[in-house]
Amino acid sequence: MSRLPTIFISHGSPMEALDAGRAGQAWTELAAALLRPRTIVMVSAHFSAPYPVLGTTAQHDTIHDFYGFPQALYALRYNAAGEPDLAFQLAEALQAQGLPVRIDPNRGLDHGAWVPLRYMYPDADVPVVNLSIDENKGPAYHYQLGQALASSLADDVLLIASGSLTHNLGDFRRPHRSVPRYVTAFQAWMQDRLKARDIAALLDYREQSLEGVQAHPSDEHLLPLFVALGAAGEQSEARVWFSEINHQILAMDVYRFERSA
C-alpha cells in the first residue's frame, strides 16, 4: 500500500471545535484525500513533558484544557480508542535509541488533538496514540525525535503534529484592524524554507527569520512541526495543503510531508 505522509496542522482556537470555517473544511478534505490510517500518532503542542511520553490508554477521555469559553465547548466529547500495543512498540523503539521514554496510561486527548480530529474523523473511529513534546527543548530535539520515530512508523500509521504556524497570544488578545506584517512574513519564510528543505535554517528559525521570535514568543506551538518533518525522512517533500490567517494573528497553515523511503 502507499505510505501515509506526516501532517502538520495549525489547530487554532478551541472555538474551531464549534465552527472552524474554511480550516475545518480543509481538515475534512485532507482526511478524505488520505488512505484510511490504521492508527494516528498525535503530537500536540498541549502535551509537554521533560522526556518523551507515550499514551497507552485503551480508551481516551476528552480533555477540556481551556477556560472562559462557551459552555457548549465543554459538552463536546471525542472518545477515540487508543492502541496500547503500538504505544509500547514505539516506546521500545525510542528506548533502543537512547531516549528516556515514559508511558502514561491515563492521558486523554487535549484540544490540540480532538479539535482537528472532529473534522478529520468525526466518528472517532481511528485509534490514537499520544506522544509528548518538551516545551523546554528546541527544534533540533524535536526533529531528532521525529527521526527516531521514522523507522517504526508503519506505512498505514498517520503522524499528525498539531500546533500553530504563528502563535503570539499577547497579540491575539489585542484588537487588530489588519494582519500584522510579521504574521504574513513568517508564514512566507516558513513556506519557502520548508519547500527548499533548508533544515539548518528551520532548526534555527529564531535567529534565521527576522519575524521568528515575534511569531513565536515561546516555541511550543511550532515544535510539533519538527517532529513531523523529522519523521518524514531526509528526502521528504513539503506540500502546503491549506493556508489562511484567522483572528488576524493565527496562521492556520496545514502541511503534509510525503515520507521518503
UniProtKB/TrEMBL annotation:
InterPro entries per the UniProt record, alphabetical: Extradiol_dOase_DODA, Xdiol_dOase_suB
Pfam families associated with the record: LigB
Keyword hit for S-adenosyl-L-methionine: no
Cofactor (UniProt): Zn(2+)
Alphabetical list of CDD domains matching this protein: 45_DOPA_Dioxygenase (cd07363)
Keywords on record: Dioxygenase, Metal-binding, Oxidoreductase, Zinc
Superkingdom classification of source: Bacteria
Oxidoreductase among keywords: yes
Residues in Extradiol ring-cleavage dioxygenase class III enzyme subunit B domain copies: 7-250
Family statement: Belongs to the DODA-type extradiol aromatic ring-opening dioxygenase family.
Protein name (record): Dioxygenase
Organism, scientific name: Pseudomonas luteola
Gene name tied to this protein: ygiD
